[in-house]
Amino acid sequence: MINIVLFEPEIPGNTGNIMRTCVATNSKLHLIKPLGFSLDEKYIKRSGVNYIDKCDYTVYENIDDFYSKNTGTFYYLTRYGHKPHTDFDYSDSEENLYFIFGKESTGIPTELLKPHLDHCMRLPMTANVRALNLSNTVAIMTYEALRQQNYNDLLRDEPHKGNDYIERS
Questions:
Q1: CA dist list (Å): 66 to 4, 24, 62, 124
Q2: Exposed, middle or buried by CB within 10 Å (0-12, 13-18, 19+), for 100?
Q3: Pairing mode, if any, of strands 28-32 and 73-77?
Q4: Can you list the positions of beta strands (E) in the chain?
Q5: Which one, of 49, 43, 47, lies nearest residue 20 by Cα?
Q6: Which of 80, 109, 148, 166 is the most exposed place for a label (fewest CB within 10 A)?
Q7: Whole-model pTM?
Q8: Interval 70-118: pLDDT, tens
Q9: What values do phi and psi take at 99, rounded to 5?
Q10: What whole-number distance in Å separates Cα of residue 159 and Cα of residue 103?
Q11: Rounded-to-integer distance, Cα 123 and Cα 129, Å
């Protein structure tokens, strides 16, 4: 299973977009407090997510609470990582994969990264940008893992208008 972990997220719009990605990909979302916003539905809906009721998510009091309740392989997305995200094998769809993302302003604290340097990664980019937007990075990572798993049971055709919609138009 693909798990998206947001360590102390600060921007509700990013979390709302990530919730939508999780619903679209059957991924589970893990939110680690403190959150920089309220999870009250009116605040999250303002960020554009109409899928909060379909999102499988859990909120944790802190990182220790999260680690104590979850097992699997943990990957850390950080601008300090030395390996690209494509250097890892995510193809085992039975394995619990956890992609951990830091808060928008400061990322993942170094004390959390140091014990896991072999699982720290960075999306390659130019020196002109410090990091991509959090929700974009989550989408890239989620879809890379899904690509390696042949997209599991996700639909490949638009479900509402039919797979021959263009031909019929």
A1: 12, 23, 7, 28
A2: buried
A3: unpaired
A4: 2-7, 28-32, 57-60, 73-77, 83-84, 97-101, 120-122
A5: 49
A6: 166
A7: 0.93
A8: 999 999 999 999 999 999 999 999 999 999 999 999 999 999 999 999 9
A9: -100, 115
A10: 35
A11: 11
